[in-house]
Every structure is written in C-alpha cells, then in structure tokens.
Amino acid sequence: MWASAATVFVLSVFHGCLGVISICVGLFASIRAEVWLAHSVSPIWSGAFFAVTAILGFASTRRKTPYMIMCFTAFCVVSMVTAIVSIQLLRLGLVNHTTDGHTFQKEDLDMCILVALGTTGLEIVVCLVSPIPSWRLAKLAKIELQAKREGPFHIEVLGQKDIVVVSRQSTPNCKKKSNAGYRLKREHIHATIL
C-alpha cells in the first residue's frame, strides 16, 4: 500500500505544481492583456481545478479511505475535461482571424499562451495517469477496511433507523480462527432520528 500511496502523492505534487504554474501564467496573461478574452483567463480556472485536485490527492494519501480516493479520481476526470476546454480556448489566442472556414494564425505568437498550452497538455497527461494508482490505492484501502472488520465486532447500517452490532464469540469446541470457529451474535439497535 505504501508504494501506491507514494505514487499518488507524487502525482498530486505534479498536479499542484502544474496548477500553480497555470495560475501564474493566467494571471500574468490577464494583467498584460488590453482586453480580457477567454484565452487570457482560462489558465486561471484550469489551474484552480488542478490545485483542488492536488489537495484531494494529498488528502487521499493521508486518510486512505476509499471514498476520499475515489473523490480524487473523479476530480482528475473533471480536471481533464477542464483542461480540454482550456486548450480549446487557448487556441483562440493563436488565431488572427477566420474567413470562409480558413483560419489564419497570428504572425507573432504570444509566449504566455504557448506556456499555458504546454502546462495544460502536461496536466492532461497527468490526469490520464493518475486514476490508475489511485484505483489500486482504493482497492488496498478497501481490503484493509475489510480486515479491520474481522475483529471482535463491527457495525452494519441496514437502513435509516436500523443499526446492527455484529460481535464474534468463539465457541468452546473449536479454537481455529476461521468463520466456522466463531458464532456470530447480532444485536439490533433501533436508532431514532432527531
């Protein structure tokens, strides 16, 4: 589990670094622009999504719950969609004008747009790679959670008002630690919602 958590942590560092770079490039481009257009502020929004993805990645490696890890994975997909939209908007900054289906590129290319395109492209690659180790980490966290349930008791929530405490008591004739050696005792606790 340590290797998967370390991989997710490193990928979260990449998400964070690329997010900060993208936000800085977007701020520089929007300050320098005479008129705010979509291509000058889109790196700010995509960088914000990358930064939130990094925060969720750090939290998922720290808490290691399947829900937090899947939240990180889902936000990777959302960040990838945001990056794709950002690339489309950044491409508009390279276009001088269009006529009859022909697109003419500007003669002098803006360096901020090229850097923003590069960081957004790298972020798409990181977003494509990130779900694989996070799925592995979620699987290992789920196995670890199930191993914790093999203790002396665990709690099952059956419905909105039914909570079951399941405790294991060993039978005197069998001393093995298998399910056959334990007698399950279920106690129903009816909860009320206040």
Automatic annotation (TrEMBL):
GO terms for cellular component: cytoplasm; membrane. It holds the Pfam family CD20. Keywords: Cytoplasm, Membrane, Transmembrane, Transmembrane helix. The keyword Ribonucleoprotein does not apply. It is a multi-pass membrane protein. The chain crosses the membrane at residues 43-60, 67-91, 111-132. Signal peptide: none annotated. It is found in: Cytoplasm; Membrane. This is Transmembrane protein 196. Coiled coil: none annotated. The keyword Glycoprotein does not apply. It comes from Capitella teleta.
